[in-house]
Amino acid sequence: MGAGLIPENRTKMKTIEERAREWVDSQPAGSVHPYNRQAMIDAYIAAYEELTRWNGQNTIPDDDKPVIICTSPGIYYIAAYDKQFNYWFTGNGSFYRHEIIGWREIHE
């Protein structure tokens, strides 16, 4: 390591497409037919985009289920939206609907 805390030999973060290609190529030899390779890469990318998609403040999640909300860049909470009161409720308090930037589902 140099003078800083970041190792000098660190690698660059891979793009989602690079990770998809790496995943498809890591499958057991012969299991990925060349005709299916691009479809598998596209499916990997589509799944990633769906799992990490942010919804706008005007879209409300179903069934009062917990989601991740963003109130400002870098500030996140676990919250549930109460349709009766029109508030986002967290363990730390509540937010009006217009006070959040967006929300996304928590996938298990």
What this model shows, in words?
The protein has 108 residues and is α+β, with helices and mostly antiparallel strands. The protein is 26% helix and 26% strand. It has two helices and six strands. It has helices at residues 16-25, 34-51; strands at 55-56, 67-72, 75-82, 87-90, 93-96, 102-105. A six-stranded antiparallel β-sheet has the order 1-6-2-3-4-5, with no helix packed on it. β2 (67-72) and β3 form a beta hairpin. α1 crosses α2. The longest helix has 18 residues, at 34-51.
Low-confidence stretches: none
Query: What is the approximate shape?
Result: elongated
Order of helices and strands: HHEEEEEE
The total strand number stands at 6
Report the average pLDDT across residues: 83
SS-based structural class?
alpha+beta
Number of helices: 2
Cα-atom radius of gyration: 20 Å
Percentage of residues in DSSP E strands: 25-35%
Order of adjacent strands in the largest pleated sheet: 1-6-2-3-4-5
Specify the helix fraction band.
25-40%
The major sheet is characterized as: 6 strands, antiparallel
What is this structure, in a nutshell?
By secondary structure, this protein is an alpha+beta fold. Helix content is 26%, strand content 26%. Strands 1-6-2-3-4-5 form a 6-stranded antiparallel beta sheet, with no helix packed on it.
